């Protein structure tokens, strides 16, 4: 059976035929003219002109039906004018210009939109479902939640799910734009649309195909393709005044000279005009560039609005923070080991569906702690988990705690000040420790805010339903212009509308409660990496990767695309106006004017295609060795956070009980510094920083961090000297206590700042480092 060509294939064929006919007629006429066959030459040129009149008339009629009279009308008038005044060569040249302009425009649009089309072509159609020992290929629509699927090498993950039995190596570049492979361990979530780059693995479905991540992205890409009309809004605004101006200049030239040839010459250089080509190509190129980095923009209109935005409103939870709890400290009772307390707590929590339990288990796995399976597991809703682990009774959750205990009071105060939650851990009925959790800032939050301001935003406001205290802390750290806490969805909508009255406004959010505010903004941006949600459906822009810095990337791409569109249209129009003036004076014949206008059109199209490039203002990215090392040292940071608890505990004991117990705590802290933290810092100095210097432009980019390393080592040596004196006498002298406290406080402050700076300045640039930056 013969296949039916697609509409795009028919369009390409028509374009090729159109271009071949006009070029052939022009060339044949030229050959006939050289041979002295003037009538034949004129007949060929007339045929080429008429071949262009028919499609041009169709474009004009279609535009008029949509209520628009664009610059295509000038092309028709110019073509008919050349026939009327017998400027047949000029008519043939205009015909070639119209045909080549259409071909260039379509080729540029195809090149610019190929990334959006690739999303649709990449969508899986079936899945391999395992039942017992057999696996069968089934249509994707038949996959249901909890099905066990097998994903073979090179196959696309069909639905959202969790890895079962064997770890998976994945290529997530379709969703994230990052080329490096990512390893997902057993139990970790995997999003649909990513490619299996390793051996076959099993996937437990957690969503049906329609509700999975990639299906939502495909719907967005389809919407972006369907809503192409706003792309030409910029061109329409220019054409609104250019069309009557061109007709007026042509009319005046005719009246002043009495020569209709001059009027035709004016119309020739005024059409088809860069307005018709430059703005759409630049905007579509910007859409394509955004899609490459995991940003799906629904329409050219949304990209234009994003490019001229001045105010940014942002939700807190899930947008500026990671949106789920993360362990920030494991505090323990005197004599207990933090790693052991975390191991037992995480082991007991393995079977619990609670969000805090998942965070504790994730932290243990991040630290590469082996977790035994618990026995006799029981869970009381709202209270916690009780289980037997390695023969010991472990209880994790809420419980009555001895408020008179110094370390307990410290944990309670910390949680209250930081807006965190506490999971108390008891072993065999004795309180052994506490896991402190909170929703931390993203590692890339500060850098993103700075980049957004440099991109032209005048005002950045946070809208959150959270309490005022933690909201103010986030606002202070990020340097926001205003923080509004305790906001309901209705309050957020009101705030968006108030800001819209002052300037073009962008709203960024991730939750269902943000959907009304996203819809109310000039541009709504959804953090949609965790699946299709109401916020994604209401947004104009969706980030398919869980990185806040993509907001800044999208803003920079939008501003650059809009700037190039305006530049191309303005320069092309200015050149056309100059040519019109020359033609009106009688110094530019129609045929020469047609050649000149063709050159102008080609130049502005090529300039508009620059929007496909990165641009000079794009944020740097780490590649090669620097990217690999950033992954490694970011993971080590997460495993070194126990140092803060050790330093605080030693300082607390020095103040309350400066005896053997305090000395033991100091030895524990010093051992951690010398055995784990300082080797980490020295490895950074010798391995990471040279690689960063190569990627970021020289050793000065890491100079301040190297100075921090020196200060950390100096303070560690100072603590070691105090411990040598104390060991020689068997106790800390009263004269030492004040300086030891200052050393501990200094270490805590310097390490806090140093970790945050490295995470924001370096690790946030890596391809797929998790964004769980810590607010310690």
Give an overview of the whole structure.
With 776 residues, this protein is an alpha+beta fold. Among the domains are: 144-207, Distorted Sandwich (Calcium-transporting ATPase, cytoplasmic transduction domain A), CATH 2.70.150.10; 326-438, Calcium-transporting ATPase, cytoplasmic domain N (3-Layer(aba) Sandwich); 624-765. 57% of the residues lie in helices and 14% in strands. The protein is built from 26 helices and 22 strands. The chain has a seven-stranded mixed β-sheet, sandwiched between helices. The protein has a six-stranded antiparallel β-sheet with strand order 12-17-16-15-14-13. A hairpin with a 2-residue loop joins strand 16 and strand 17. Helix 8 packs parallel to helix 21 (590-608). It starts with 6 loop residues before the first helix and ends in a 15-residue tail after the last helix. It is a multi-pass membrane protein. Keywords: ATP-binding, Cell membrane, Membrane, Metal-binding, Nucleotide-binding, Translocase, Transmembrane, Transmembrane helix.
Features:
776 residues, alpha+beta, Calcium-transporting ATPase, cytoplasmic transduction domain A, Calcium-transporting ATPase, cytoplasmic domain N, 7-stranded mixed β-sheet, 6-stranded antiparallel β-sheet, 26 helices, disordered N terminus
Helical fraction equals 55-70%
Largest sheet: number of strands, sense, barrel closure: 7 strands, mixed
Mean of pLDDT: 78
What is the count of DSSP helices, taking H or I runs of 4+ residues? 26
Poorly predicted runs: 1-5, 224-233
Strand content: 5-15%
Count of beta strands: 22
Strand sequence of the main sheet, in spatial order? 10-22-21-20-11-18-19
**What does the overall shape look like?**
elongated
Decide which structural class fits the backbone. alpha+beta
> Compute the gyration radius: what is it?
33 Å
Q: Cα distance, first to last residue? A: 68 Å
Organism: Pseudonocardia zijingensis
Subcellular location: Cell membrane
Keywords: ATP-binding, Cell membrane, Membrane, Metal-binding, Nucleotide-binding, Translocase, Transmembrane, Transmembrane helix
Protein name: Heavy metal translocating P-type ATPase
